[in-house]
Amino acid sequence: MENDGSGGAQNMAPDAEPPSLKTGPATATPDLTIDQVHIGAALSRLFAASLGDAIMVMSQSSHYKHCALSDIEWLLLPPARLGQIYIAEMAHREKGFRKPIALLTWAFVSEEVDQRLQQDLRRPARLRPEEWNSGDIGWIIDAVGGQQGIESALTWLKHNAFKGHRMKMTVFNAHGAAHIAIVEGASHDT
Length: 190
What we know:
Layout: H1 34-59, H2 69-75, H3 77-82, E1 85-91, E2 98-109, H4 111-119, E3 137-145, H5 147-158, E4 166-172, E5 178-184
Parallel strand pairs: 3-4
Antiparallel strand pairs: 1-2, 2-3, 4-5
């Protein structure tokens, strides 16, 4: 890739690193103010930290502990990009350190995807990136972590992201049988 000095590329070879993945100091473009560059950098770091927190929670789960890194691409990236992930944290009483203890991901799917999700409840839900926001039928795709963390996350989500929505969720009883539970978001009146 050749640089013309303006921060943009004159031409890009097929094997060249895309500008968005360029490392080194951030360069302002004529379209962005320095504040926008700093805000973008902060949001990028927050996104990366959120993924790290989610991976930390998943690494403690027997269900996800041995997932390959490639699984993160379909498990976490689509909901994280859409803001459809919530990470519950616990704070240390004396020092204030925060630790992620649970995560929830959710999708709003089409009728076709809804039918597919209901067909085999024993299998983990696997959505293509475009399916995470393909309709208006709510599904909690993953709830990972301790019971207290999941309940705390659900309480917050019912009054925020799930407000006015009915969310379907696969749950398992003590014998391992799966069924669909409904999580009711708060009404818009509350």
